[in-house]
Write a structure and sequence with these properties.
With 748 residues, this protein is α+β, with helices and mostly antiparallel strands. It has six domains: 166 residues, Alpha-Beta Complex (Nucleoside Triphosphate Pyrophosphohydrolase), CATH 3.90.79; 96 residues, no CATH class; 137 residues, Serine Threonine Protein Phosphatase 5, Tetratricopeptide repeat, CATH 1.25.40; 97 residues, Ubiquitin-like (UB roll), CATH 3.10.20; 102 residues, Acyl-CoA Binding Protein; 99 residues, PH-domain like (Roll), CATH 2.30.29. It is 39% helix and 15% strand. The strands form four sheets. Strands 1, 2, 3, 4, 5, 6 and 7 form a seven-stranded mixed beta sheet that branches. The longest helix is centred in the first third of the chain and has 19 residues. 32% of the residues are buried.
Length: 748
C-alpha cells in the first residue's frame, strides 16, 4: 500500500486547550518543479510492502528522511487517520494516511536540511490551511491530507484524554526510562559491551546478576505495561520468560486502566488530594515556568493583569494539574478569579484530582469567590472530584458561617434554571433557559425564540438565527455551535484573531437577527407580524447607519415612512420634528445629511403624500413597504465586515466595509459610505492567496458595466483578518444563488 506520513509536532502544553490549528506543526518536503510554479510542498510517502505491524517500518522511514545516524527524528507511534467519507474517498483509496506524533522538543538537524534534496521542514498547520486555495504550493493529495489532519486533531481535542494518549511516549520507552518502575532493568535499555556493539552474551551475563525474583517481577510488570498500550483486558501468563516448569499456576486477567502500582509510574501528574498547595515550594525552574500561578496565589492583581495583556498561557497546568484560576480560588482572591474568567479561563477546568475552582473555593469557605464563579454562564455546579463529591458536598459538613453561606449560594443556584439574555433588533431582550447548561446549542436557543414570538419553524427557523456581537465584530453562529463557549473565548481569542479592536472593550452579547445565509427569495415569504417588525428594525438600523448606500429618491421615501411611523398623521407634530437637524438624524443617514440641505422640507412633503391616503396606514403595512424598498437595494441582507482595500487607484484605497449577501460582494468606503465596487458572483472569482489575511477578487465579466470604477485587468485586494470567514460565506451564498435570478445590480 502507498503510505502518506503526517508528522505532527505539538506546541508545549496543548492538552487542555481549545483546538487551534496554530498549536501544531506539520513536516513537509520540497522539490523543484520544471514549471513556473517553483517549489511544491508535500507530505512524505513511500510504498509499504509489509502490511503486518507496519509501525517499525514507518518510524524507520521517518528516521531516515529526517537525517538518520543519530540526528533523525524517532516518532512515538504510527496511527491510521481514517479518510472522511466524502466524494474524494474513491480517489484516495490507494493511500493510507498515518499520523506520527512527535515531541515538541524534536527538531530537524540544520546541516542535514541544507544538504537534503527534499529540504524537510516544519510548517504551522494554521498557515497551511490558509494557503490551501493556492494551487502553486500544494499538489491535490497534500491539500486533502492537510484538511484531514485538521479534522482529526480537532476530533481528538473534543474527546477527554485523547491527546494524552496520542502524544505520550510509548510504553516501551516509559519502561526503559522510569527507574522507579518495578519493570525496570538495565537489560531494557539495550546496554552495550565495552566495544560499543551489542552482545547477547554480555547482556545475558548482566541479567543473571539480578536475583531470580526481581527478574520474574520485572518481566511480569513489563508485559503488563506493554499490553496496556493496546488492550482493554490482558491475560497474563505468569511463566512467560521465567524458565519455570509449568504447574498449576492459573492464568490471571489484568483489567485496564492499570492497577495503582503501574498507574503511579505511567501517570506524570501528581495528586494533591492530601497535599498542601503552596507555590512558594516551586523550584526555581517551576517559578520561571508558572509566573501567573505565582501572582494569582499571592493576590497580585496588577501583575496578573499584566500577564493577561501580554497573552501568557492562562490554561497552563503545574505538576499538580493546577491552573492560575485554581490558585486564585484556593486563596480567595475573587478579583483575580473574575479577571481570569474575563480573559477566557474556563470555570470548569479540572486539576489532577478533578477539582474545579468551585470545589476549591467551597472547601476553603470563600462566598465572594463562589458568587463570582456562579455568575459565569458556563459553570457546571454538578461536577464531581475523584472521590465523587460535588462542591456542595465538600462544604455542607463544615460549620463555619462562611461555609454555610457558600452552601446557601450553591443550593440557590442549583434550584434556579440558568438563563441567558438574547437581544432582538427592536431593542428588547428575551431571557432564554440554558436547557443543557454550557452545552446548549444555537438550535435550542433558536427554537425557544420562535416559541416566544409564536412563529412556526417552517420557514422561520431558516429566516432568523443567533449572532454573537461586540463593537468591532459580529459573527453568525452555526446551529450546532454552543454560544457560551464563544462568549467565554470571545474577547481574548476570537476578537483578538479577527480584529484589531481592544479586547477589553469587546463585551459580547447575543442577538436574534436575519440569517445572512439565506437568499432574498426565501425571505419574501415572510408575513408573520413579529417577523416583519424584527426585519424592519434591522433594515432601519442598517439604513440609518449608512450601510445601505442609496440615492436621493430612496432617502426621501425611507425618511417619509419613518416620519409617518413616529408621528402617524399628526402633520403639525411631524412638521415641528423635521425642522430640527438633530431629529433628521433619525430619518436620514449621516453621509446623505451632509451632502444636501433642506432634507426636512423635502421629507415632509413626501410624508404628506402618505397622509393623503383615504385611510390611516397601519404600522405593519408601512414596515413592510419600508422592507420591500430596502430589498431593492443591492446590499440588503448583507453581513458586514471591515478591512482595507488595495487597488492601483490611490483614491479608492483605505479602510472599507465589505458587504456579502446573496447577490455578491460590495465594497463601501468606511468614511463616506460611498459604494466603491459591487459585483455579482457570476462576475468574479476569488482566492485566498498565500499571504495571511488577504482576499483577492478578479473580475471576469466580458462587458464592462456602466459606473465601473476598477480596471478588471488588476485584481482587487482586500486585507482583513476576517478573510477566511468572508470566503466561507461567499462560497455558501454563491452556491445558493447559482441558477437563481437575483436582484438587479446598481452602483451609487
Amino acid at each position: 500500500m502507498e503510505v502518506i506520513l503526517a508528522v505532527v509536532r505539538p506546541k508545549q502544553n496543548v492538552s487542555g486547550q481549545d483546538y487551534r490549528a496554530k498549536l501544531y506543526d506539520i513536516l513537509l518536503l520540497d522539490h523543484k518543479n520544471v514549471d513556473r510554479h517553483g517549489k511544491q510542498k508535500y507530505f512524505p510517502s513511500f510504498h509499504l510492502t509489509v502490511e503486518k505491524e507496519p509501525r517499525d517500518l514507518i518510524l524507520s522511514h521517518l528516521y531516515t528522511i529526517t537525517g538518520g545516524d543519530h540526528v533523525g527524528i524517532k516518532g512515538e507511534r504510527a496511527l491510521i487517520v481514517p479518510w472522511t467519507k466524502d466524494g474524494q474517498r474513491s480517489s484516495l483509496s490507494r493511500f493510507t494516511l498515518y499520523c506520527i506524533p512527535i515531541s515538541p522538543r524534536d527538531k530537524l538537524n540544520s546541516v542535514f536540511v541544507d544538504k537534503s534534496p527534499n529540504s524537510p521542514g516544519f510548517y504551522s498547520l494554521e498557515t497551511l490551511l490558509h494557503s490551501l486555495n493556492s494551487s502553486m504550493n500544494f499538489p491535490p493529495p497534500t491539500k486533502t491530507c492537510v484538511m484531514q489532519i485538521d479534522k482529526w486533531l480537532k476530533e481528538k481535542h473534543s474527546k477527554p484524554g485523547a491527546l494524552e494518549l496520542v502524544f505520550r511516549s510509548r510504553a516501551d520507552f516509559r519502561v526503559k526510562f522510569t527507574v522507579s518502575n518495578p519493570a525496570f532493568l538495565p537489560i531494557s535499555m539495550g546496554l552495550s559491551d565495552s566495544t560499543g556493539s551489542s552482545s547477547t552474551l554480555y547482556l545475558r551475563t548482566l541479567m543473571s546478576d539480578f536475583p531470580e525474583e526481581i527478574r520474574i517481577a520485572a518481566n511480569e510488570y513489563s508485559a503488563k505495561m506493554m499490553a496496556i498500550e493496546k488492550c482493554t483486558k490482558v491475560v497474563m501468563n505468569p511463566l512467560f520468560g521465567t524458565n519455570l516448569v509449568p504447574g498449576n499456576r492459573p492464568l490471571r486477567t489484568v483489567p485496564c486502566p492499570p492497577p495503582d502500582y503501574i498507574k503511579s509510574v505511567t501517570n506524570s501528574r501528581k495528586s494533591s488530594l492530601n497535599s498542601s498547595i503552596d507555590p512558594d515550594s516551586y523550584s526555581l525552574e517551576e517559578r520561571e515556568l508558572y509566573p501567573v500561578h505565582m501572582f494569582a496565589a499571592k493576590g497580585d492583581v496588577s501583575k496578573v493583569r499584566d500577564c493577561i495583556s501580554r497573552h501568557y498561557q492562562l490554561a497552563m497546568r503545574d505538576p499538580y494539574g493546577w491552573t492560575p484560576i485554581h490558585f486564585a480560588a484556593w486563596f480567595g482572591y475573587e478579583e483575580i478569579v473574575q479577571m481570569l474568567l474575563n480573559a477566557g479561563c474556563s470555570p470548569n477546568v479540572l486539576n489532577s484530582d478533578d477539582r474545579t475552582p468551585l470545589h476549591l473555593s467551597a472547601i476553603k469557605g470563600y462566598p465572594a469567590v463562589v458568587k463570582v464563579l456562579l455568575n459565569h454562564p458556563e459553570l457546571d455546579i454538578n461536577l464531581v472530584d475523584k472521590k465523587g463529591r460535588t462542591a456542595f458536598e465538600m462544604c455542607e459538613q463544615k460549620f463555619s458561617l462562611e461555609h454555610k453561606e457558600v452552601a446557601k449560594c450553591l443550593v440557590k443556584a442549583a434550584r434556579q434554571p440558568r438563563q441567558i439574555q438574547v437581544l432582538t433588533m427592536d431593542g428588547n431582550s428575551i431571557s432564554l433557559n440554558l436547557i443543557d447548561g454550557a452545552n446548549t446549542t444555537v438550535q435550542q436557543l433558536n427554537q425557544q425564540m420562535l416559541k416566544e414570538f409564536n412563529m412556526p419553524e417552517i420557514p422561520y427557523a431558516d429566516i432568523f438565527t443567533i449572532w454573537i456581537c461586540s463593537p468591532s465584530l459580529e459573527l453568525q453562529l452555526k446551529p450546532e455551535h454552543k454560544p457560551l463557549e464563544h462568549m467565554s473565548s470571545w474577547q481574548y481569542k476570537i476578537v483578538g484573531n479577527l480584529t484589531d479592536g481592544d479586547p477589553t472593550q469587546e463585551e459580547p452579547h447575543l442577538k436574534w437577527r436575519r440569517n445572512a445565509k439565506i437568499s432574498l427569495i426565501v425571505e419574501r415569504v415572510v408575513d408573520h407580524p413579529h417577523a416583519v417588525r424584527l426585519l424592519f428594525h434591522e433594515a432601519k438600523q442598517n439604513y440609518i447607519n449608512a450601510f445601505y448606500p442609496c440615492k436621493e429618491p430612496d432617502v426621501l421615501l425611507f425618511g417619509s415612512i419613518l416620519l409617518y411611523l413616529s408621528h402617524s398623521s399628526d402633520q403639525q407634530s411631524a412638521r415641528s420634528f423635521v425642522s430640527t437637524h438633530r431629529n433628521l438624524q433619525q430619518l436620514v443617514p449621516q453621509p446623505n445629511l451632509k451632502s444636501k440641505s433642506n432634507w426636512g422640507n423635502r421629507i415632509y412633503h413626501k410624508y404628506r403624500d402618505l397622509c393623503a391616503k383615504d385611510q390611516p396606514l397601519r404600522t405593519q403595512v408601512l414596515q413592510l413597504e419600508f422592507l420591500n424598498n430596502c430589498r431593492n437595494l443591492t446590499v440588503y441582507g448583507s453581513a458586514f465586515f471591515t478591512g482595507d482595500l488595495q487597488t492601483g487607484n490611490p483614491r479608492q484605497q483605505g479602510k472599507c466595509f465589505i458587504a456579502v449577501n446573496d447577490v455578491g460582494i460590495h465594497i463601501i468606503n468606511f468614511q463616506s459610505r460611498v459604494m466603491l465596487h459591487s459585483y455579482k458572483y457570476s462576475e468574479i472569482n476569488w482566492i485566498l492567496p498565500n499571504e495571511y489575511g488577504m482576499l483577492e477578487l478578479n473580475v471576469v465579466r466580458s462587458v464592462p458595466r456602466q459606473g465601473d470604477r476598477h480596471n478588471s485587468l488588476n485584481p482587487l485586494k482586500l486585507r482583513t483578518k476576517q478573510a477566511g470567514t468572508i470566503n466561507h460565506l461567499m462560497k455558501k451564498l454563491s452556491r445558493i444563488t447559482y441558477g437563481i435570478m437575483t436582484r438587479p445590480l446598481s452602483v451609487e
